[in-house]
Amino acid sequence: MELLALPDDGVPRLLLDIGCGSGLSGETITENGHQWIGLDISESMLNVALQNEVEGDLLLGDMGQGLGLRPGVIDGAISISAVQWLCNADKSSHEPRLRLKAFFGSLYRCLARGARAVLQVYPENIAQRELILSYAMRSGFAGGVVVDYPHSTKKRKEYLVLTCGPPSVSSAVPSGKGEDGESCSDDESSGDEENQTVCISDRHRPRKKQKVNKKGKGREWVLRKKDQMRRKGNVVPPDTKYTARKRKARF
Amino acid sequence: MRLLTHNMLSSNIKGVTNGFPLKIEVEKVVEKQVEINHDFLRNIFPKIDWKAFSDAARTMGYVELPEQAPDPSVLESDLDFLTKFHHALLELHLEEGALVCPETGRKFPVNKGIPNMLLHEDEV
């Protein structure tokens, strides 16, 4: 997950971890020799991070209120499954659109030119992803969505790869594709948003409706199932005239 | 909180135009040994607002940094300076205290080394 974020190797850089939680992702950054600042809204999570003795600095803050950072100082930002929370309104005063705008606006400001932000998101539905993406684009980022394992529900991961800078630097998106290939996801799709919506099926797609009518399943169905089970070698009670007969109403 | 982070932080209360630098109110400072990395120091140096940095270091009780921003060339040769720079930037931690917004005077408390930058609803 880390591979995407780093613009180039060699010198250690200053990274920002948005929604760092207990500092798990920060530890990976430390292992790669970079300095980082973590931001999280939850004090208890940050206390856990303190106990883990993470190397980076921690801030208690709300990304929906904007990041209070000086312009152009951060070399890169990562965020693991945090941004979609901006779409929730936990308080009556929260307005998801404004919060998204504040977040992306301030993120754009504090990143150095050419810096990259990689946000792993779990959007609830397509509309939510579109919303996040549109606000990211509006604040000036260039980039797109990269998906790992698009066909697996469990392992599926979506990354928003955003590059800070004029949108004319369109080379940013293709490099996102290439990197994804390197990071050995078995299947990839990225770039074009339209392609995205085609190949991405909703995580929470409704279950196939089972045909249950009021009468319940008939005798025929039960016999068929029993037969199936017998063929599998299971122990199945014999078919009698009582098979699949309805019970009497006792009360 | 290290001075590195302090140097990056600014107040983002609505209507504040210049929320940087945040003043430091010190209650407790701790020092933690960190391995020195010259490449990182050279990389971060241009991004540091030196005046805010040296002032902050002074408030924390570390007076060995020059007041004026030194010439970038010292980074290449002067190991003594690099060590001081490193010490102030990464090893001094503000453990307890507060950060004060220079314009509104709003205090952001620092507990266990974590500054609480949460804003009230009317400040967003």
TrEMBL record, chain A:
Q: What keywords would UniProt list here? A: Cytoplasm, Methyltransferase, Nucleus, S-adenosyl-L-methionine, Transferase
Check the record and name the Pfam families matching this protein: Methyltransf_11 (PF08241), WBS_methylT (PF12589)
Which parts of the sequence are annotated with region: Disordered?
168-251
Does the record carry Transport as a key word? Answer: no
Instruction: Write down any Gene Ontology CC term.
Output: cytoplasm
Domain of life, per lineage: Eukaryota
Give the main localization category. Answer: cytoplasm
Q: Which GO terms describe its molecular function?
A: rRNA (guanine) methyltransferase activity
Its signal peptide is: none
Q: Where in the cell is it found?
A: Cytoplasm; Nucleus
Where is the Methyltransferase type domain positioned along the sequence? 16-117
Q: Which residues form the 18S rRNA (guanine(1575)-N(7))-methyltransferase Bud23 C-terminal domain?
A: 162-249
**Cross-referenced InterPro entries:** Bud23-like, Bud23_C, Methyltransf_11, SAM-dependent_MTases_sf
Record flagged with keyword Cell cycle: no
| One GO term of the biological process aspect | rRNA (guanine-N7)-methylation
Where in the sequence does UniProt note compositional bias of the Basic residues kind? 204-217
Q: Which PANTHER family match?
A: 18S RRNA (GUANINE-N(7))-METHYLTRANSFERASE-RELATED, METHYLTRANSFERASE-RELATED
Family of the protein in this entry: Belongs to the class I-like SAM-binding methyltransferase superfamily. BUD23/WBSCR22 family.
- Put simply, this protein is called 18S rRNA (guanine(1575)-N(7))-methyltransferase Bud23 C-terminal domain-containing protein
From which organism does this entry originate?
Gossypium davidsonii (Davidson's cotton)
Automatic annotation (TrEMBL), chain B:
GO function term, MF aspect, one: protein heterodimerization activity
Family membership:
Belongs to the TRM112 family.
- Quote the subunit structure annotation: Interacts with TRM9.
Q: State the species of origin.
A: Gossypium davidsonii (Davidson's cotton)
**Which GO BP terms sit in this record?**
rRNA (guanine-N7)-methylation; tRNA methylation
Protein name as it appears in the record: Trm112p-like protein
Q: Which Pfam families match?
A: Trm112p (PF03966)
